[in-house]
Structure formats: C-alpha cells, structure tokens
Amino acid sequence: MMETPIKREIVDRLVEELGIKDFAKATIREVKQVAAKAEKSSGVEFIKMEMGIPGLPAAQVGVDAQIKALQDGIAHSYPDIQGAPVLKQEASRFVKAFIGLDVAPECCVPVSGSMQGTFASFLTCSQADKQKDTVLFIDPGFPVQKMQLQVQGVKYETFDVYDYRGEKLGPKLESYLSKGNICAIVYSNPNNPAWICLNEEELKTIGELATRYDTIVMEDLAYFAMDFRKDLSVPFQPPYQPSVGRYTDNYILLISGSKAFSYAGERIGVTCISDKLFHRHYPDLAARYEGLPFGLVFSTRMLYALSSGTSHSAQFALAAMLKAASDGTYNFRKEVSVYGERARKLKDIFCRYGFHIVYDKDLDEPVADGFYFTIGYQGMTSGELAKELMYYGVSAICLITTGSHQEGLRVCTSFIEDHQYALLEERMKIWKANHEA
Fold first, then answer.
1. Pairing state of beta strands 409-412 and 372-377?
2. Residues whose CB is less than 8 angstroms from the CB of residue 131 and which lie 6 or more positions away in sequence, other chains included
3. Contact 221/315 with Cβ under 8 angstroms?
4. Max alpha carbon distance in the chain (Å)?
5. What is the pLDDT of residues 208-259, one digit of tens each?
6. Is the alpha carbon torsion for 319, 325, 329, 330 positive or negative?
7. pTM for this model (two decimals)
8. Separation of alpha carbons 402 and 33, rounded Å
9. With helix as H, strand as E and coil as C, how does 201-233 read?
C-alpha cells in the first residue's frame, strides 16, 4: 500500500471528535469541517468539492447598480413588500426573454434568495387546501428544502428519479398524486446534485398531471440556463430554458441571483408566480388571511412575517443584472460556462482511475457538464467512498443526503483551481495503486 496524502489517523480522529457516526449521513458543513481541520493538521492542500458556493466574482453590473442605489440614499427606506417596481418589471422581462413565458410584473416578487422563496412557497402551498398537506420531491435535490419543511412541520414524500425518466415518470408521479394529499411538487432543473435536466416531454407530463390533480409545481431554477449542451444565452430567441410553465398554470418559478450572477452574498432572488395562480382564491387561504388571493398571501403575509421585505439595494443589483441579460449586453451564461469546463476535466480524471458517473444520462444523451456531477466507485458505499477520499485530500458529500438511493458522491466544481487538476491526477494515481493492487 502506498501512503495516502493525508494520514488516515488524522481523518479518523477528526471524524470521531465531531461525533460523525455514519459518514454517509455527514452534512455539508461537517464534511467541510473535517476537510478544513485535516488540511490544517497535515499541511496538505485539500481539493474541496463539498460546498455549492459560487467560485466566480460577482457580476460587476450588479455591484455597480447596488453601490449607486446606496449612494443615492436607498438604505434609509424600507423596501415595498411587493418589491421595487424596476425589479418586478425586469424579472417579468427576463422570464419572457429566457423562458419564453408571460408572467406579469405584479406576479414577480423579490425574495432574500431562493431559500426564502421556497420557505414562503412551502408555507403558502401547504395552507392552500387542508386536504393537501404533503409536498412531493422529485429527488435527488437540495437537502435544506426538506429541512425547511421539518421546521414548518409539513409532511413530504420523495422518490429518486434515477429509474423513472421519460415515460416512467408519469405513472410514478400519479401514484403519489392520486392519493389527493400532495399540495406541491418540487424539483431543480438543472438538478442539484445530479445535473440531470428534465426535458420538455417530462415537464409536459409534470404540468399536465399538476393541472389534473390541482397541485402546484415549484420549479427551482437556481442554475438558470446552465445546461451547457444548448445555447440558451440569446434573449427572446429559442431555445429557451425548459419550464413546466408551458404546460400548466399551477407553477412557481424560483430564480436566484446566487449562481447565474455569482451574487450569493447579497441573498437576492425573485419568485415568479403564474398570473392565474397569483390571483387564485383558495377558500382555506381566504378564511385564514382576510380573503386574500394566493399571491398576496405569499407576499403580504408570508414574506412580511419572515423579513418585512428584501434588501432594498440588492433589488437594484438584480434588476440591473436581469436588464443587462435581457438587453443582450451581459452574457451571464458565458461567465458561468467555466463550471462546465471544470466538470469535463474533473470527470475525465476520475473516470480514468476507475470511478464512474452515477447520474450519467438524460435519457439517451450524456448528462451535461456543469456546476455539479456525481461519482461512484465499484464495491464502495457512499459513506466508505467519501471517507476514503478524505485520506487523499478530496472532500465531497454523499448522495444519500440529497434523497438519492444511489451509492456515490456529489462533486461541486465551483472552487477548483487550475493547479488542482494535476494535484488530483497525482492523488488518483495513488488511489489506483492502493485499490487495484
């Protein structure tokens, strides 16, 4: 056996100190903590792939607009709970430009990041109809969304979409929807962590079933237009970002400034609710909230109770970024395409040393290269693989924490630096020598 880059006893001691009983269930922050402490104790650089944090500079057009808003004195006044008119207008225009959907400015509501958007959406959806008290996740997905429901005391169901792509998706969804208790369906597209992209036929299936069973679809577009297999960068021209909004009126789009514009630190996003859903009156919501329709319950009750609005200056930053994208003067896709290039290089290294891509296909097409990808190693469980890679100075999270039933890890490309490809290659040579001996 060749000696591993990080002494095994260092990692084992840290895992024990942090009280991690099962590494398969270790949270992102626990994995991050082990990596940081092991790096400090050993003096050996870690290749950190566990955190889904943008690794690019924030879009300058947003920074400039936010600074100007602050200099103009915006910080002294409370933001309107419905959002700054300029952002509402630009969000509506952006949705038209890059998704091809018509959503009125009134129905575009700024939120303190998509995290707040999902929290408020869960609250509103779960209270809309007393008969429908359960959220359905098309997994794998973002673990914190389930934590949000845990905080709210709302029930949820989940299934791993791995074996239910294409024609199999409809019957699987209907097996849940037919029970009559599902208030909302949630998925991300592109997907965190698998980077699979539901296609138009699958979205049509979801949309038609949502209409038939009167269920709301929450479409998480955190990685907006980041399917790099297609050029989705030209405003007001197809191809557009795929969306369930073409197939149902029961939708909420969650658009984040964090990844597409690398504006994560200012906690800014926009929740776009279909015009029909925004103005719909649910008897149970009306009884609880003075007769208000869905969209105004979302904003004037849920968001108002949570934060009394969204950072005023950040709204001007997002408005400027969306406007520049829709005007065609700022190609946000070009900025973030580096994630796809990193994924391609990293996948190549891992696969050359015996690893495989877990979620490898979108039906008959290879999955796109992007912000995340998934790896597995024959004969190793998720927990075994994650811990073993720690000895090689590589950190990633287990797929089980994302609702996946597959054995493997989520790899994030955001913090990879140019010199680390050679570093990973060296370490995987040692891995191969130790595991194929």
1. antiparallel
2. 180, 181
3. no
4. 71
5. 999 999 999 999 999 999 999 999 999 999 999 999 999 999 999 999 999 9
6. positive
7. 0.94
8. 19
9. HHHHHHHHHHHHCCCEEEEEECCCCCCCCCCCC
